[in-house]
Structures are given as structure tokens and as C-alpha cells.
Amino acid sequence: MAHRLNLDDRRMETIMGRLLQIGVLLASAVVLIGGFLYLRAHLGSTADYRTFAGEPADLRSVGGLFRLLMTGDPTAVIQLGVILLIATPVARVIFAVVGFALERDRLYVAVSLTVLAVLMVSLFCFS
């Protein structure tokens, strides 16, 4: 006897809402910690606004970001928080695809997959 997961509309909305709340709170906490570490590391230094200095290339790759995180770099912690914030709605759409698939609602699976495809294209092709 197979046990079917009971995901009605209200339960799915509740889970998706919690997913968004937890994602935003986690991302905010990580950015706040990174900001605190950044301010502590740069206490007393003055900013030079005459010359533009972009962020290191390591912050633009996954491997480089993790290397900087392992060293405790504050800008990498902030970058991780931003990535978590971006990943939150993506995780919500993935959950919607799974939830609608479990409900066998083909129309909403197709719509959710389309939204996911648009998100992925915009993240990886226009960044």
C-alpha cells in the first residue's frame, strides 16, 4: 500500500511562504554578518572615491568564492548572502514544480518549468 503525500493548495502555499521567509532571513543574516566583518576589517581606513576598483575575480566564480570564504574574507560572506537571496525564489519555483508534479497538475508543472527556465536563462546568460 503506497502512502501518497498530501499536498493540498493551502499546505503548498504555507510551505512556499515559509521557504521564502527562511531564505530571506538566512540571506539577510549572512549579509549582516559579512557587513559587520567588513566594517570591523576596514575600521579607520578611508575610502578613495577617485579611482574605481572592481571586486576581485574570485568573487565572480564559485570556486574562487569558496576559497575566499575559507579565508574568512568579509566580501565573500556578503557575496554568499546575495547568492542565497537570489537562490530563494529559484528554490521556491523548484518546490512548485515538485509539488505540482506530486499533485499531477500538468498545466502548473509546465508553467512552473517555464518560469524556472526564464530564471535560469536570465541568471546564466545575462550575468
Secondary structure layout:
Elements: H1 9-41, H2 62-71, H3 74-102, H4 106-125
Helix pairs in contact: 1-3, 2-3, 3-4
Helix run count? 4
Mean pLDDT: 87
From the N-terminal CA to the C-terminal CA, the straight-line distance is 48 Å
Sheet with most strands: none
Structural class: mainly alpha
Please tell me about this protein's structure.
- The longest helix is centred in the N-terminal third of the chain and has 33 residues, at 9-41.
- With 127 residues, the protein is an all-alpha fold.
- The N and C termini lie far apart (48 Å).
- The protein has one domain (14-40, 57-125).
- It has helices spanning 9-41, 62-71, 74-102, 106-125.
- The protein contains 4 helices and no strands.
- It is elongated, with a radius of gyration of 19 Å.
Q: What is the structure about, briefly put?
A:
The protein has about 130 residues and is an all-alpha fold.
Q: Which characteristics define this entry?
A:
127 residues, mainly alpha, 4 helices, 72% helix, 0% strand
